Amino acid sequence: MRTKFLILGAGPAGLSFSNRLFQNGERDFIVLEAEAQAGGLCRSVDVDGYALDIGGGHILDVRRTEVVKFLFQFMSRDEWNYFVRDTTIHINGKYVSHPFEANIWQFNTQDQAEYLASIARAGCVTGKPKPEKFTEWITWKLGERIAQEYMLPYNKKMFGSELDNLGTYWLEKLPDVSFEDTLRSCLEHRAYAKQPGHSEFYYPVEHGYGELWLRMAGALDGRIAYGQKVNSIDFDSHIVRTEEGREFSGEVIINTIPYAEFRELQGMPESLRQKTRSLKHTSVQVKYSPQKMDTSAQWIYYPDPGLSYHRIFVRHNVLLGSKGIWYETNSDRIGPPDGNFAYINEYAYPLNTIGKPEIMRSLLEWMAEHNVFGLGRWGEHQHYNSDTTVELALKLADKLL
């Protein structure tokens, strides 16, 4: 089957790109999806009478107004609840507001003094040269105590034990810890810090986040081929093959699926193929528990290495009227089944390993020369949230149209 646009993957990237084509009158395209349902990491299932997002707690950030306007065409504003983000960190037996460095005033006086002393010695405060290793960089950025008690154990639980295989380029957006602002927050008992991303967001009133993507899939008038797991691509002939034995080709190919899914990358130079094979990712289990937590928080972070999970999403504080929570755990740390619903996302987070930016730059530039474009979290191997992915998809569709 030949088409003008061949889109691999019906997650947020593929669906947004495809719907932009459709809305602009383009009908010569097809989307290939391995699963029986659209949505990718943002899919939802019914668990214990309410929706559960199998990729973890996904939400719609309010900041990108053009993205929100586009998505509200498929699920209107009155079908969403608006929230101000409430996130806490469980550390040393205490719940502290996020971001951590802005809220150490919530500890007792002795702990505050020790955190302040540690921040005063942080490399970014004293002017020490910026280190290259991830573990040393975190200490340089935040001070030894915050690094050792929170950031390092949390990242080890989330991304794995070999943290020094990670680069530091993706952490540049993390602000330098300010001794003056931290001291002021301790004296005035309020946070002095810029709000983190997703400080305001929408979540559906009656559904999981996956409902949005189901509606976007439904708007494509049957142009999604489900159950088609792609396993090879030929960059010269533009032929894509699936495990089901079908062949598809497109003048333009949009890839939104992980490169590890391709058993064959035909026509790609061997050196670039090897680099592409070196891309790393983590897998995460999402597991449901019916308990109700006495908290207003929507997310709770757990750096304690004695606990298998690194984060809890409190469903009843986002999907109002529901019950239960779900745990997120790196698949290397999961325990035996306990009878509750659990789902493993093989592809959860792209790892920001040393050298990855150079690999992706070379890969994406080479593919674009062959009219193949990487898009979204997996097509660009970046830890994009769904709103960022939608924005990039709209821009790419507009450019190619």
What can you see in these coordinates?
- There is one protein chain.
- The chain is an alpha/beta fold and 401 residues long.
- It has two domains: 2-86 and 202-400, FAD/NAD(P)-binding domain; 99-188, no CATH class.
- Helices cover 30% and strands 25% of the residues.
- The protein has helices at 12-23, 65-71, 109-120, 123-126, 134-142, 144-159, 179-188, 210-218, 270-277, 356-369, 376-379, 386-400; strands at residues 2-8, 29-33, 44-47, 50-53, 60-61, 80-84, 87-91, 94-97, 200-204, 224-226, 230-234, 239-242, 247-255, 264-266, 281-289, 299-301, 311-314, 325-330, 342-350, 372-374.
- Strands 1, 2, 10, 11, 12, 13, 14 and 20 form an eight-stranded mixed β-sheet that branches.
Brief summary of the model shown:
The chain contains twelve helices and 20 strands. By secondary structure, it is an alpha/beta fold. The protein folds into two domains: 2-86 and 202-400, FAD/NAD(P)-binding domain, CATH 3.50.50; 99-188, no CATH class.
Show the helix and strand layout:
Layout: E1 2-8, H1 12-23, E2 29-33, E3 44-47, E4 50-53, E5 60-61, H2 65-71, E6 80-84, E7 87-91, E8 94-97, H3 109-120, H4 123-126, H5 134-142, H6 144-159, H7 179-188, E9 200-204, H8 210-218, E10 224-226, E11 230-234, E12 239-242, E13 247-255, E14 264-266, H9 270-277, E15 281-289, E16 299-301, E17 311-314, E18 325-330, E19 342-350, H10 356-369, E20 372-374, H11 376-379, H12 386-400
Parallel strand pairs: 1-2, 1-13, 2-10, 7-16, 11-14, 13-20
Antiparallel strand pairs: 3-4, 5-9, 6-9, 7-8, 11-12, 12-13, 15-18, 15-19, 16-17, 17-18
Helix pairs in contact: 1-12, 3-7, 5-6
